[in-house]
Write a structure and sequence with these properties.
By secondary structure, the protein is an alpha/beta fold. The chain has helices at 14-17, 20-27, 64-75, 95-102, 119-124, 141-152, 164-167, 200-218, 220-223, 230-247; strands at residues 2-7, 32-37, 50-51, 61-62, 83-92, 106-111, 116-117, 128-131, 185-186, 189-190. It folds into two domains: 2-152, 3-Layer(aba) Sandwich (Alpha/beta knot); 185-247, Trp Operon Repressor, Chain A. The radius of gyration is 23 Å and the shape is elongated. It binds 6-chloroguanine. 6-chloroguanine binds at residues 86-88, 131-133, 135-137, 139-140, 143.
C-alpha cells in the first residue's frame, strides 16, 4: 500500500510511523508512507495556505490553490488514487471501511485544518470523506493516523499471525473476549479455570460466549448487525430473562 498524506503538519506523523507495527510494515516494503506539506505548494512570498471565509463569520478556511497543486503534482490530474478528506462531516470510519480501504493499492489522505476547507476542494478533488467519530478535533491529522494505522495492520503480511485480523474486536461484529496471561493467580485474582484446562473446544465456546455477553452488555447496537447462531440467540434470550428477573 502506498499512502500519500497531505497536511500542514507533517511532523505530527513522523514519530508514530517510526515505531511498532507501522515501522515494521515500512521496513518490509508492505507500506510506503509519503508525507507532503501543503505549504510547499503555496506560491506567494509568505506561503499563505488559509484565508477569511466569504460571507464573514470568523475562523479561517484552507485555500483551494495549494491543496489542488499539492495533490495533482503528486497524484496527477485527475488523481490516480482515492483522495480522502478527513473531516467531522465524513462517513463514519469503522472496521468495514478499514477493510474496504485496505483493498486499494494507493490512498491519498488529505488533512483539513482551521474551520474547514474551501468547498471546491470537496467538490472537485476529494473522492471520499471520512470522520473518526462524533467529536471535533482541531485538524484531520489524528484522524489520518487512525485510518493509516487501522488500514496498515490489515495488509497481508503486516501482522505476525495471518489470522489475527479475523480475531479482532469488530471483525465478526462482536467485541473481543477477555485475555489473560501469567501469573495464574495475581493478588488472589485467578485466571478462569477453563483457559488452563487445555480443552480447546471448551475454550473456544467460553471465549465466544464471553464475546457475545460483552457485546450484549456494552454495545447492544452491534448485535443487530452481527451474524448470530441459533445458540447465540438462545443465550441472549436467557440473559434478557435473567435481567428482567433481577429487576423484579
Ligand atoms: Cl476526520 N477531523 C476533525 N477535525 N475532527 C474530527 C474528525 C476529523 N473525525 C472526528 N472528529
Amino acid at each position: 500500500m502506498h499512502f500519500d498524506i497531505f497536511t500542514l503538519f507533517p511532523e505530527v506523523f513522523t514519530p508514530y510511523i517510526a515505531v511498532s507495527i507501522i515501522a515494521r510494515a515500512r521496513e518490509r516494503g508492505l507500506a510506503e508512507i509519503h508525507l507532503h506539506n501543503i505549504r510547499d505548494w503555496a506560491t506567494d512570498r509568505h506561503h499563505v495556505v488559509d484565508d477569511e471565509p466569504y460571507g464573514g463569520g470568523g475562523g479561517m478556511v484552507m485555500k483551494p490553490e495549494p491543496v489542488f497543486a499539492a495533490v495533482e503534482s503528486v497524484l496527477g490530474s485527475p488523481p490516480r488514487a482515492p483522495v480522502i478528506l478527513l473531516t467531522p462531516q465524513g462517513r463514519l470510519f469503522t472496521q468495514a471501511v478499514a477493510r474496504e480501504l485496505a483493498a486499494f493499492p494507493r490512498l491519498a489522505l488529505l488533512c483539513g485544518r482551521y474551520e474547514g476547507v474551501d468547498e471546491r476542494v470537496r467538490q472537485h478533488l476529494v473522492t471520499d470523506e471520512i470522520s473518526i467519530g462524533d467529536y471535533v478535533l482541531t485538524g484531520g491529522e489524528l484522524a489520518a493516523l487512525v485510518v493509516l494505522d487501522a488500514v496498515t495492520r490489515l495488509l497481508p503480511g503486516v501482522l505476525g499471525d495471518p489470522d489475527a485480523p479475523a480475531k479482532d474486536s469488530h471483525a465478526n461484529g462482536l467485541l473481543e473476549h477477555p485475555h489473560y496471561t501469567r501469573p495464574p493467580v495475581f493478588r488472589g485474582w485467578e485466571v478462569p479455570e477453563v483457559l488452563r484446562s487445555g480443552d480447546h473446544a471448551r475454550i473456544a465456546r467460553w471465549r465466544h460466549e464471553q464475546s457475545l455477553r460483552r457485546t450484549w452488555e456494552r454495545r447492544p447496537d452491534l448485535l443487530a448487525r452481527a451474524p448470530l447462531s441459533e445458540e447465540d440467540h438462545a443465550l441472549i434470550a436467557r440473559w434478557e430473562a435473567e435481567r428482567r428477573a433481577d429487576r423484579g
